[in-house]
Amino acid sequence: MTAQATPKEASMRRESGAGAMPSVLPGILLCLAITAVAICLQMVEERSFGHPYIEALVIAILMGIALRSAWQPGERFRAGIAFSAKQLLEVAVTLLGASISLGAIVASGPALLAGIVGTVGLAIAASYGICRALKLPARMAILVACGNSICGNSAIAAVAPVIGADSKDVAASIAFTAVLGVLMVLGLPLFVPLAGLSEHQYGVLAGLTVYAVPQVLAATVPVGLMSTQVGTLVKLVRVLMLGPVVVAFSLLASRLPQEGGTAKPKPGRLSLTRLVPWFIVGFLLLASIRSLGLIPDAASRPVTQFAGFLTVVSMAALGLGVDVRVLARVGGRVTLAVTGSLVVLIAISLTLIRVLGIA
């Protein structure tokens, strides 16, 4: 005769067995609803202005934060929100590798390639130093540094799970970085007359400083075709830096200080899966396959679009996990840190243009 399961045992069986999917479904549906609204708002921007000044993933996280401020999701939503914020994001990062090709990057020349790599490295180090000087937590400092130095929201979203960043740190970094990203699109063209930049030089500057590829297009199209082509190429090189940077931080993650009263985890047996997360391996693998020409443009485009969709869903989930009161307490310091980091990045980029003699 089989013993009757206790309520606790029954609950555990539901979570680990057939009840696992229903448990995450309400939270996923909530994130999808926010995503749908965010995408619709971006489409309205595109029809009104020709391009989005605020991308759907930024709208999604801001909507999530706003909804979380007015209403706290109940227990039935939490598992799905957590699943969307972590697992779906990891899948999205993996799929982004299908959009990266090494051929055009190699053809751009060793001097510019080395300069871009050096700029990213210097910017990350300088940004991290500024953030720590302003007493920001180590993990948030890394998120801000990577967001400013590589590719904004995508870099923050990719680095966050590797270093074990809290959702509030991720949301704060993305929110403030996103605001400055919009200001960059609007204000960066002023450097053409102020600094006397040519279309080629401005393209390099935009590619090195603007956060997202669509924002690079928005910032360069008004200046000229040459700026758009150069800016896009330089931006792709910066995006490619995301893989090595994430791998590097996965190696350093165990050495980061444990903040917020948590105990430092005990070191365990060294393994490849601990050093390099599965989604980074997948990202690099897809990038290599794409570079060999085994993923055609016709296949790469929908994969990249689906990755972008999953990223928006994940950003909605991150927003739903943020208490706006916590965000407000760190707002001033984060704003100063992001602004200071961006100023340093622009200065490094202008110096590189002069040193390389880019005409």
* Range of strand content: under 5%
Helix content: over 70%
Tell me the number of strands.
0
Q: Describe the main β-sheet briefly.
A: none
Q: How many discrete domains? A: 1
What Rg, in angstroms, do the CA atoms define?
21 Å
Question: Low-confidence parts lasting 5 or more residues at pLDDT below 50?
Answer: 1-5, 7-19, 261-271
Shape: globular
Class per helix and strand makeup:
mainly alpha
Average of the residue pLDDT scores: 79
Distance between the termini: 85 Å
H/E topology pattern: HHHHHHHHHHHHHHHHHH
Summed up, the helix count is: 18
Family: Belongs to the UPF0324 family.
Pfam family, one: Cons_hypoth698
Main location: membrane
Subcellular location: Cell membrane
